[in-house]
Automatic annotation (TrEMBL):
It comes from Caldiarchaeum subterraneum. GO terms for molecular function: metallopeptidase activity. This is Uncharacterized protein. InterPro entries: MetalloPept_cat_dom_sf. The lineage of its organism: Archaea, Nitrososphaerota, Candidatus Caldarchaeales, Candidatus Caldarchaeaceae, Candidatus Caldarchaeum.
Amino acid sequence: MVFSLLPMQAYGVERVQQQEDFGVLPIEGELEVNVFLYDISLSWFQARDLTHLHQLLRDTKVIRPSAKSQLYSKGREFVPFEFEVSLRLFVPPTEVQQEYRSLLNSMVSKTPFQIAQQAVEFASTYGMPLAWTDQTIRARDALYVFSYLTEKYFPETAGKYAIFLFCGIPAMGGNRPAIYYTYGQSPDTGAYLADFGLSIYGGAWWGRYFYVDLCSYPPQKFYQQLKPIFEYGTATERVYHVAQLIDIIIDMEFVKSLTYKPRYNVQTLFDVIVIDATVAGVGYDIIVRYFDPELLSKAFRTLVPYNFFTTRLREVELKDVPELSQAIQYTPQGILLLPEKAYDVLKRRGIIDESIREVMDYVPAIILFTTTTSYVDEPGVLGAAIDRRDDPSLPLAASGATYYEELIKSGLTALLIHEIGHALGLRHPHDDFDEYRNSKASFFALTYFTETVMSYSRSWVVGFNREEIFEELYPIRTFWSIFDLDNVDRAVVCLLLHEYEQDYREIIHSLSSAGLDLGEVPEIGEALDLARRYSLMALEEFRDHNYFDRASFKGLGAQLVSAFD
């Protein structure tokens, strides 16, 4: 990858320095995306050959020519990175296609009995024969097939960003589509959690590979966005559908993913405050059984390895703080926690102590526990970040709601990690501002199964005790896939350089406002010149890394043994 850099120039301390004197951002480069077609007929798109298909996809104007860095939901740039998209299409030779069918078929196995009922529920929404649910494919095993074939037959593309478009029907014998799933056990409860209908799966957590079975059925709620390609009526519709899939995968999965804003306070206190709204006041005793503070700390140590985390768990009963009734609303759909009001009450009563922020990161997490259905703000919402009133882009605290049936199924730890993750700057994988179309976008169906605790699916549970499946590639060992190493690497580098640019600009402006120039304050001029030279040196070092090759890149988090493991 080639990054464009401003040439380094020498500056005297008495020279009047302008914005361009210290600008080192944005970092620009090329993003090469390889698209492989397995058992995909070009006739579906009325394409004469691969070149024609490539042109048809480009003519839709759907696939963005450049993918920009993470943006806030309102469109404000967060990390100044931009990649020019280079798209290449491949149709593997006949013998490779035959090996693919054999390998994918070998991954078919009996659905684990612990999740068989969930498989039946998925099939019943489409009226599928129940026999289909007995023989299914684990999503990671399907992805492994393509990883293996890529390393064996296309080594020049191994470890680079790749999308595998395929039709699984021939590999299944020609008479039925394949059904894909993920599953795992909740670390709090031991309950088996599963997702079925993963016709699309992968991303940066899995060696930068992403598969799309164009002939498989997604969950019913995502049917309109991801229905099988043979259910589109025209070739034009099929071309547009594939173009949209490629574009969103590039933008949301390969470039944006999750964002983390570095925090520099060494000590962090997670202050978990349980509002016990049960009649008998037994919520705290129950919650203790389904909450593991060590797992909570372990999760965030993968994100901030040098920080020291402390978790404090406290109970507040409604009878002891009657004002909290103002923060609880009873509706026909369930009990609602109004988090901002709860925060204000707890702050007034001294239960939340903001003075702690003077010595460490302080992250309150307010949890409502009831014996009936309960949510945050509105029905169906299990948690939300509480934003700072003076700057809504910055989180103030986390909040959540749970009730007995949900607690014994999923536990509390994952909910807390998700909500505290927001308070530390992490986003849902489906959140986006689409800068290409200048609108707020959210392709929920495509990113739903991203294997992170920040998603809404149950696929996060697969990341717990993750197994390595890609030999010679970066072994992902991050707990619950809390973040994507590629995104963190570029975010940290760019944010530091961005802060440097802002500080530089503010110093020059302050001197100018005071009627001074650098010639009158040589110490500041020398410090700024040194800072600029160091920033360019850091950028040169970063450029020299083979950024898109985890096996050799020795950056902030992508080496085999790193601070992020």
